[in-house]
Design goal:
Length: about 400
């Protein structure tokens, strides 16, 4: 689009058209709001991810009315296979699927457009427009000429994901380093199609602090990756810094310890490069709002620490932001009360994020994965419990705490 045709104002400006931003924009536009949805990339675009959709993502896709469209493209999967260092495994049943983000995010953007939101891309968010402390719009760099373009808005939503630049520019970033880092590649392998039909997650001492995965996508293309869920460490002086780890070596170690990963990488056909990206987890590391602006999705850490899953919770938090803005528009609240309502809704999610954070010790003590596998193989009740946690029909409770683990051994 020519820069001259770009709009200069709107009611709600949503910055970032990933799952969080698109869900928020769709809900607001369907509610009659004038919404501009802005992204630095043209769609369809790639996003480094494992592409695994777990039950909370399916629930959010149903709320957005796009579940059938997603299911028509996605590879359905029935189990998460948890594989311990010994090589033993359990299959935890769940409503799961795999769909590359290039397709998923395009479906979500189009749904927002169908609801009436207007997509503007490529436009890169540079800084908020301020009236005192209050955010009243944003300044962008346009993709065409690189010129500066300003859009004023009654309310702004920031949904720019785990990369911290936009968060910092918006004055919300409390921790620059991410919570985790991971990389993934796509590999086509016809021969493994029959053998790998689960979301496979592998823990091993050589992958301490994280895990490796192989997820079967559509058309015989696998998403293979490895990541650290605790890449951010606290120094003695309390300052955060990145762990000193070479992610490519970590990925190579995964291929050395897990034979199907080696087989996939040596005899499969790579589809593009292996790429890495940061994760922000546990609803930590950023302020959730400031006057005139709500931040949502992975920008505020809406990804689970232990598992690195975040697509579902990104949409869920995007919908919470939209609901808060709709309550305000109905005259039920003012900006301050609207922000309080949004933050209270996020706080209600915090305990679940905290449980996933404490479950991260499985990543640091991979032998615990063998213990869970060993118990799960013997106890249908424990397997049902794990499935309930995955489906979010049951709280993890103390299952993943040290106490819970000890109970597992002696129960
Ligand atoms: C390697 C890896 C594997 C993962 N695997 C899984 C998985 O299997 N399942 C799962 O559920 N989750 C997974 N996650 C987490 C998942 O990717 C995130 O939780 C999810 O993408 C968050 O959605 P979001 O909408 O908040 O942010 P994003 O999806 O990151 O979207 C943010 C959008 O904002 C745009 N943007 C950023 N900065 C600007 C700017 N300055 N101006 C304009 N636009 C901007 C970006 O272009 C992007 O479109 C994985 C993450 C990684 C890194």
């Amino acid at each position: 689009m020519s820069d001259a045709l770009l709009p200069h104002q709107c009611d709600v400006l949503v910055i970032g058209a990933g799952p969080a931003g698109s869900a928020c924009a769709q809900h607001l536009a369907a509610g009659g709001r004038e919404v501009l949805l802005v992204d630095q990339h043209l769609f369809p675009r790639d996003k480094v991810c494992g592409d695994g959709l777990i039950p909370d993502a399916h629930a959010a896709l149903r709320r957005l009315g796009v579940y059938d469209e997603v299911a028509a493209h996605a590879q359905p999967v029935q189990h998460v296979r948890c594989i311990g260092p010994s090589g033993r495994h359990i299959d935890v049943p769940g409503s799961l699927s795999v769909l590359p983000r290039r397709t998923l995010d395009h479906i979500l953007v189009r749904a927002a457009e169908r609801a009436g939101a207007r997509l503007l891309a490529p436009l890169r968010f540079e800084a908020p427009l301020l009236d005192g402390e209050r955010v009243v719009g944003a300044r962008f760099k346009t993709g065409g000429t690189g010129a500066s373009h300003e859009i004023t808005a009654r309310r702004v939503v920031l949904a720019t994901g785990a990369v911290p630049q936009a968060l910092t520019a918006a004055g919300l970033c409390e921790r620059h380093t991410p919570s985790g880092i991971a990389l993934r590649g796509y590999v086509r392998h016809e021969g493994l199609r029959e053998r790998i039909q689960q979301l496979q997650i592998i823990w091993h001492p050589r992958l301490r602090g994280g895990y490796g995965w192989i997820f079967p996508g559509p058309n015989g293309v696998f998403n293979i990756g490895a990541g650290l869920t605790g890449s951010h460490v606290q120094s003695a002086k309390g300052k955060g810094r990145m762990q000193d780890v070479n992610l490519r070596d970590f990925f190579d170690a995964f291929c050395e310890v897990y034979a199907p990963a080696a087989e996939l990488m040596t005899s499969g056909v790579p589809q593009g490069e292996i790429k890495g990206a940061p994760l922000r987890c546990s609803l930590r590391g950023a302020r959730w709002s400031r006057p005139g602006l709500l931040a949502t999705g992975e920008a505020i850490g809406s990804t689970y620490a232990f598992s690195g899953e975040g697509i579902g919770k990104a949409m869920e938090t995007g919908l919470l932001a939209a609901a808060a803005l709709q309550a305000e528009a109905r005259g039920a609240t003012d900006d301050g009360a609207m922000r309080q309502g949004y933050e209270a809704a996020l706080k209600a999610l915090q305990p679940r994020f905290d449980l996933y954070e404490s479950a991260s010790h499985v990543n640091y003590h991979p032998w615990l994965a063998d213990l869970i596998v060993w118990r799960g193989q013997r106890s249908p009740r424990i397997l049902r419990r794990l499935s309930g946690v995955l489906e979010e029909t049951q709280s993890p409770g103390r299952l993943f705490s040290w106490r819970g683990m000890t109970k597992l051994i002696f129960e």
